[in-house]
Amino acid sequence: MSEPRPNYITPAGYAVLKAEYDQLLGEERPKLVDVIAWAAGNGDRSENGDYIYGRKRLREIDRRLGFLAKRMKAARVVDPATQTERGRAWFGATVTIADEDDNHRTLELVGDDEADAGKGRIGWNSPMARALRGSAVGDVRTVALPAGAKEVEVMAIVYP
User: What's 91's domain CATH number?
Assistant: First the structure.
């Protein structure tokens, strides 16, 4: 089996994954197991809502725990503050870009698990982040977007 592709992530992003994993494994799952055991002791399981829902939710939790475990195992924690080449856009950079209509946007290049487009945090493997990787201030890059190719100019690059 091939090694999973590295899952670049900031220290804060890794802490969020770990916190969710710990909460599900340490709190939610044990409570649910107790409810299922109690419901199973009530007799007929075919019409027992607590039992049926509990088993369904337990499968969901176990699936999520497996996903989180795999993502954390593949995680390669990178602290953007330690970036030595600060003149180019690499992981963790906050990049200000301008499009053809001179609309400015500020984007932070983060791990795919921490991406939140509404807050300007784009995943490292997104089309925009791939286009911006390695760029310097003044570079013009072409981004392949669903609506068609778009050119953006890098206006500023900042690291924490």
Answer: 3.10.50.30
Tokens 């924690």 correspond to: 77
8-state DSSP, 126: S
> Amino acid identity, residue 6?
P
Q: To the nearest 10°, report the CA torsion of 67, 69, 74, 76.
A: 120
Question: 58 and 42 in one domain?
Answer: yes
Q: What is the pLDDT of residues 59-109, one digit of tens each?
A: 999 999 999 999 999 999 999 988 888 899 999 999 999 988 888 999 999
Q: By residue range, what is the domain housing residue 42?
A: 7-77
Q: Which of 15, 49, 77 is a domain's end point?
A: 77
Count CA within 13 A, CB hemisphere, residue 39.
Answer: 17
